[in-house]
Write a structure and sequence with these properties.
The complex is a heterodimer.
Chain A (H helix, E strand, L loop, with lengths): L8 H52 L20 H4 L7 H9 L10 H4 L16 E2 L12 E2 L2 E4 L43 E5 L27 E2 L11 E3 L12 E3 L17 E6 L4 E5 L4 H8 L11
Parallel strand pairs in A: 3-5, 6-7
Antiparallel strand pairs in A: 1-2, 3-4, 4-8, 8-9
Chain B lengths: L1 H18 L8 E9 L2 E2 L2 E8 L7 E6 L2 E6 L2 E8 L1 E4 L13 E4 L12 E4 L9 E3 L2
Parallel strand pairs in B: 1-10
Antiparallel strand pairs in B: 1-2, 1-5, 3-4, 3-6, 6-9, 7-8
Classes of the chains: A alpha/beta, B mainly beta.
Chain lengths: 313, 133
């Protein structure tokens, strides 16, 4: 019998097919691991922000305001909790610069401050991050940094009327954050571990899309509820966010509706993780909330003093 | 013997297929039209909210008067919201005054909605809404 040398064509094809199948099996697994790693980093950011809020609480005796109501201040109108916890996220340099600037509207903050990307506020799962905009478009040379993390404003529409419009008042919402809020841990009667502190939002559209008030629009969206989210609907709902002006109304996972009024605004918790969104509780713990969560439970978690008996399990 | 083996393989394959279906509640397709004063609404949002507040709402866009929503069964309060651009001068000096929007579907069809419909598992779930301004 003649000795064979090398492979036959069939053998080669079989080997290639087997390698192909193995790669086909492996690739989705690698992608899944990478997505899981991004999700872990995303919830780690949430944890860091929650700890920074607690450090702020330690030094000030209260959590920062959701947003600084524009009628109650002559400078830094619409400032949000995001800027206020910078010193606790090792961002003292940019914080000092910001506090030294005494402009009236934060939309007009010098570009090197307002366009500074604070990495802790960017969720790596969001392909649109780090975002810019949602604060009235291009002003003072920049669009303003837009992040993924927002505070809990309660379980109803995020009502913030603006001065000069009918119905103006400082509305006290039932979450931890609202306009000029100064919530102390002691005010969270439902128990800090049973009350939502923070959650995530998706960034919609490009910085060039004119938009005002989408979730995470810290540089001017404050008075349009951009600092917070509501638990009126569960995470990743099909109900559209209702904002002053949307950056993009065609994003399927994160629908948006421009309402241009002050009483119908809502921003819902949304994330690019499959099945739900991460949330930080008032005690600093971070949980993953599934989008199929029982609605009364989700709403009960959002209120700080609703008196409900809840369990997140 | 090879037959049992083949059967085993088939069962295992079937298990693999059914192993990871999409989670979540069973939803049904709800379709219909929305008109305001006889005219189809070009761009709106329709929401099916559980009357008893026990679960999240289901929503979709209304485009040229037509909508398709995936919704769980049950008694739903239907809310239809639409906005349009208007021009108005505002007192605020923040720069927002140039462009503004108004909600032009009356509140009795959204915030104070009186529309209720029952989504069923076996019905045709076709609901048409003729709204009056």
């Amino acid at each position: 019998m003649r000795r064979r040398e090398g492979f036959t064509l069939v053998e080669l094809l079989v080997v290639i097919a087997i390698i192909g199948i193995l790669i086909g099996l492996l690739l989705p697994a690698v992608q899944a691991v990478r997505a899981a790693a991004r999700r872990m980093q995303c919830s780690n950011h949430l944890k860091q922000i929650a700890l920074a809020l607690h450090n702020y609480h330690d030094s000030m005796g209260r959590f920062p305001y959701g947003t600084l109501d524009e009628a109650t201040t002559s400078f830094h109108r619409r400032d949000t909790w995001m800027q206020q916890i910078w010193p606790h996220l090792e961002q003292s340099a940019v914080y000092d610069k910001y506090m030294a600037w005494k402009g009236v509207w934060i939309m007009d903050t010098p570009v090197e401050i307002k366009d500074a990307v604070i990495p802790t506020f960017v969720c790596p799962s969001d392909p649109n991050g780090p975002g810019f905009g949602a604060g009235g478009g291009y002003r003072s040379g920049g669009y303003g940094f837009q992040g993924n993390y927002v505070g809990c404003a309660g379980d109803d529409y995020i009502k913030i009327n603006r001065p000069g419009f009918s119905g103006y008042a400082l509305h006290k919402l039932n979450g931890i954050f609202y306009a000029n809020s100064a919530t102390r841990i002691g005010d969270i009667l439902d128990g800090a571990s049973h009350t939502l502190l923070l959650s995530e939002v998706m960034i919609r559209g490009d910085k060039n899309d004119p938009g005002w008030g989408g979730g995470g629009g810290y540089w001017g969206g404050g008075q349009h509820s951009a600092f917070g989210f509501t638990a009126l609907e569960p995470p990743n709902t099909t109900v559209a966010d209702r904002v002053w002006t949307c950056k993009d109304t065609n994003m399927l996972e994160s629908p948006c509706m421009t309402v241009g009024d002050d009483i119908n605004k809502c921003i819902f918790a949304r994330s690019h993780h499959s099945g739900g969104a991460s949330a930080a509780m008032g005690d600093g713990s971070v949980r993953f909330i599934t989008e199929t969560i029982d609605l009364p439970t989700w709403k009960a978690l959002a209120t700080r003093a609703g008196g409900e008996v809840t369990s997140t399990d | 013997m090879p037959k049992t083996l083949a059967a085993c393989a088939a069962v295992c394959f079937a298990l693999l297929l059914f192993g990871c279906g999409p989670g979540g509640p069973t939803t049904y397709e709800v379709t219909g039209t929305v008109t305001l004063d006889g005219e189809p609404i070009a761009d709106a949002q329709i929401v099916f909210r559980a009357v008893d507040g026990s679960e999240g709402s289901w929503a979709a866009k209304v485009t040229d008067g037509e909508y398709t929503v995936q919704s769980t069964p049950g008694k739903k309060r239907v809310e239809i919201t639409a906005t349009r651009e208007i021009h108005m001068k505002v007192a605020s000096d923040s720069g927002e005054g140039e462009l503004n929007y108004e909600m032009y579907v009356p509140e009795k069809y959204n915030r104070q909605s009186e529309l209720t419909r029952e989504v069923t598992a076996d019905g045709d779930n076709r609901f048409d809404f003729a709204l009056e301004p």
